[in-house]
Specification:
By secondary structure, the chain is mainly beta. The protein has 4 domains: 32-118, RNA Polymerase Alpha Subunit, Chain A, domain 2 (Beta Complex); 126-220, YbbR-like domain (RNA Polymerase Alpha Subunit, Chain A, domain 2, Beta Complex), CATH 2.170.120.40; 221-305, YbbR-like domain (RNA Polymerase Alpha Subunit, Chain A, domain 2, Beta Complex), CATH 2.170.120.40; 308-395, RNA Polymerase Alpha Subunit, Chain A, domain 2. It has 7 helices and 30 strands. The chain has helices spanning 2-6, 8-29, 48-52, 73-76, 163-167, 255-259, 346-349; strands at 32-45, 55-57, 64-72, 85-89, 96-99, 103-105, 111-114, 120-138, 145-153, 156-162, 171-177, 185-194, 205-206, 210-226, 229-230, 237-245, 248-253, 264-265, 269-270, 278-281, 290-292, 300-316, 321-323, 331-333, 337-345, 358-362, 370-373, 376-378, 384-388, 391-395. The termini are far apart.
């Protein structure tokens, strides 16, 4: 016993052995292990700096990451994602797409074994742009009515948001149902920002979400065009008819004004200036408050006329009735036929036959036994006798 008390070297050796044995036991029962931590949130630092610089994080969803850590088993078993802080400083980024620069704060004794796969963010400038509001007409307006015009108040809407979202807007639409319109209206409607495919663009802010649509509605009606004339055609012409193009057309105006109109009259055509069948431009007399539905209509009238024609008829000399000739006196003509030229309208002239002529001569005027005479020809008042061929008469 005395030897043990006085042998300090043996004491030290025993202590070292005990410590070594304790360390061995501990290392075997609480070894270093690796584990994967999933869904560790990535913290954005200095996010307000984006707003101050006119920037915005395009995807507002908070990302998470997974990483492999290592440490003593008894410590690792108690680690949760909340014990790990993964962060990035947004003040370091400008507009564009960036791979995140991540910082890791781990509990004491815990080390990072494997960093996560790179993650990127899209930062864009916040821009403002003005758009004209387009009215989207839906439905079919009732027959007999016409939508004269539409106007929105305001006509321009400002849009604010990320550059890509604002620049994807093709139009700002305001829908108006026209199926029940019969009079002027003012309608308050919501508006939608649409892309070129007609899809609503999300993630932007409108200057206001609605507009007032002022819709002007008129009554419409189809009416015939009535052609009016002044003066008369020359004597050798007659009117066959007047055809208008278009024959009917649509007018518009207040309901009360339109309802009392049955036709529209043209400015008068001066027939004294018509020399042949021709097409003339027309103007129409529109009552006050009435206008054309289609301002591009060209009004025309085809004036069909017929001029008199001449026709020669060959009549037998035997048809001449000699008046005032003494009974029993015989006579002869120097030829069997003579010609008569008449003038009239073709349709009428074509119906005339030699039997329609009444031909005579007053023989009491004869001063000699033989004379060249011009018979008297009578025909309907529809015709003018232009010329009668002379014939020589000889009394026997």
């Amino acid at each position: 016993m005395k030897m043990l008390k006085n042998n300090w070297k043996l004491k030290i050796l025993s202590l070292v052995g005990a410590i070594f044995l304790w360390s061995f036991v501990i290392s075997e029962e609480n070894p270093k292990v690796n584990t994967t931590m999933n869904n560790v949130p990535i913290i954005y630092e200095n996010e307000n700096s984006l707003n101050s610089r006119g920037l915005v994080l395009l995807d507002s969803t908070r990302p998470t990451t997974s990483l492999v850590i290592t440490g003593q088993r008894n410590q690792i078993m108690n680690i949760t994602p909340q014990h790990i802080r993964v962060s990035t400083d947004l003040s370091e980024y400008e507009e564009g797409t960036h791979v995140l620069k991540l910082k890791y704060d781990l509990p004491s004794g815990i080390e990072l074994v494997e960093s996560p796969a790179p993650k990127s963010i899209d930062i864009q400038a916040v821009i403002t742009k003005d758009f004209h509001v387009d009215v989207d007409l839906q439905g079919v307006i009732q027959e007999g009515y016409i939508l004269e015009s539409t106007k929105t108040t305001p006509e321009i809407i400002s849009v604010r948001g990320p550059r890509s979202s604002v620049e994807s807007i093709s139009t700002i639409k305001a829908a108006l149902n026209t199926s029940s319109l019969q009079q002027d209206i003012v309608s308050n409607v919501n508006i939608e920002p649409l892309d070129s495919n007609g899809n609503v663009v999300e993630g932007i802010t409108l200057g206001q979400n609605f507009v007032n649509i002022n819709a002007a509605v008129n009554k419409s009606k189809e009416v015939p065009l009535v052609v009016e004339t002044t003066n008369t055609l020359p004597d050798d012409m007659r009117l066959l008819g007047i055809t208008t193009t278009p024959a009917n057309f649509f007018i518009k105006g207040d309901e009360g004004a339109v309802d009392i109109i049955n036709d529209i009259k043209s400015v008068k055509i001066d027939l004294s200036k018509i020399t042949k069948t021709q097409v003339v431009d027309l103007e129409v007399n529109l009552p006050t408050g009435i206008s054309l539905v289609n301002d591009d209509i060209k009004f025309e009238a085809r004036v069909d006329v017929e001029k008199k024609v001449e026709k020669t008829f060959t009549l037998p000399s035997s048809v001449i009735e000699l008046k005032g000739l003494e009974e029993g006196v015989k006579y002869t003509y120097d030829r069997e036929n003579f010609n008569v030229v008449i003038k009239g309208f073709l349709e009428d002239v074509e119906k005339v036959t030699p039997a329609d002529f009444k031909v005579s001569y007053d023989a009491t005027r004869l001063a000699a036994p033989a004379a060249t005479i011009k018979p008297n020809v009578e025909l309907s008042n529809n015709f003018e006798v232009v010329s009668i061929e002379n014939i020589r008469l000889t009394l026997e």
